[in-house]
From TrEMBL:
Protein name per the record: Molybdenum cofactor biosynthesis protein MoaD
Matches recorded under PANTHER family: SULFUR CARRIER PROTEIN CYSO, SULFUR CARRIER PROTEIN SLR0821-RELATED
One Pfam assignment: ThiS
InterPro entries: Beta-grasp_dom_sf, Mopterin_synth/thiamin_S_b, Sulfur_Carrier/Prot_Modifier, ThiS/MoaD-like
Length: 92
């Protein structure tokens, strides 16, 4: 099962600069564990204590996984996963 994972600039040091990588797994948790086997350190930047880190947004086919099943969200062959760090700051 091939799943494309789009990597944000801040995490590309783990993927040798690749903007997108392929992985596999039946759930997001399995996908992140699979990515860790080839891109050591990336999983810890996305997951903390078995849950998505607070300031990391993950989208499955453009839908926020927090409104699905979070890290337990089921995946299918050909899915696209996008990892985006939350952005905050500025003046008010």
């Amino acid at each position: 099962m091939a799943i494309e994972v789009r990597i944000p600039t801040i995490l590309r040091t783990y993927t040798d600069g690749a903007k997108a990588v392929e992985g596999s797994g039946e759930t997001l948790a399995e996908l992140f564990a699979d990515l860790e086997t080839r891109h050591t350190g990336i999983q810890d930047r996305i997951v903390d204590g078995g849950e998505l880190r607070r300031f990391v947004n993950v989208y499955l086919n453009d839908e926020d996984v927090r409104f699905l099943d979070g890290i337990s969200t089921k995946l299918a062959d050909g899915d696209n996963v996008t990892i985006l760090p939350a952005v905050a700051g500025g003046m008010y």
